[in-house]
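User: I'm curious whether this sequence folds into something compact or stays loose and floppy. Could you predict its structure so I can see for myself?
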Amino acid sequence: MFRRRPLHLFLLLALLACPPHAAAQPSRPLWQGSQFTEADRARAVRRGLEFIYRTALDEDNFRLYGSDYLWCFYTVGESVSDPAVRRAARRMGVERARLWQRLHRTLPRDSDAQTVADFAFGADASAGLGFRNEHLKGQVRRAAARFGPRDFLLFDPATEAPPADVPDDCGFDGVRNARGAKACRACRRPLKPRTPQDVWYDALITAYVGERYGVRLGASYAEVLRWLPSLRPYRAADPAMPDGGPGFYDTVYALTHVVYTLNDYGLYTLSPRALGDEYEFLRSNLREAVRQRDADMLGEFMDSLRALGLDERDPSMRAGVEYLLANQNADGSWGARDERDIYLRYHPTWNGVAALSRYRWRGPSPRLRKYRHLLDDNQTTEHERP
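Assistant: Here's the prediction. I'll summarize afterward.
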């Protein structure tokens, strides 16, 4: 196993060093009456990115979430408008991708579907950072052919709607159980069912990355996306419920990942008319994330709404910016500092960085034009709805 050496300290300092012009950010207020300035915003983004990179340097963290870290650095390095942030994210991503390639030279022969998918995620992000490995891609493609849609996606979107009978992994021992199971096969404790929205957006991400990489991971992106209308109508947050009510959280993440996979994670704009129901849900429920003090969810709301044309002229977007700037932790992160799972430390921080960033849009999304016909309600009939 790769062992961290003191060299990482010098590398970290070099990668995070601010360019000479970074300290000269304008100090004007974000808008009239704001307690924060443009310099505060730029500093918060930089500190958040620094925190993510520090956690990515930890051997155990990178072993567990290396492919996700690479995707973070790649997308930030491609999409945000601040050139200093783009360069820093790119440098971080290249350094980590070089290590990921060393640790993932070959796909293990006994890999299950989840391992194959993780290799595809990591290799695709690595390719975006300049590290292509056609030999590994061939291994992933051959291994992927051994598995079916249910192995990768937990359902077959070519023949069925997102199901409501997929249990979550056991909260006690982490065991994955078969569809329809009510109790864990290992410890016999009751299992919590996943919502159709949760199962569906995981499948959407997997199919999207598979197509980007050029390896089919269970189904095509179109086969999964066509079920979006079956999730409508969307239930607004219930202010009487601390979590917004049943299914609210998973609905938010399902719709934000519609945005991400249609705009290639921050590269293109989307028409709010083409995604009318989704836009209206996200716009009208954004403040619920502030009410819940959930930086991760808030970042997903704001990041997606920017792609749909909303900016700080909107009072709810201003409230989101103010909340993030007022609640960044001393170490640069967002979220609970006592959280043990590092994913729940760096992922809210990634979303905080995304929410506060401005983007260098490349124009309207070509993927939205390609898949626009799948977004209409007449794509699924009433009897097909989960």
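Summary: Residues 242 and 292 are 7 Å apart (CA to CA). The mean pLDDT is 92.
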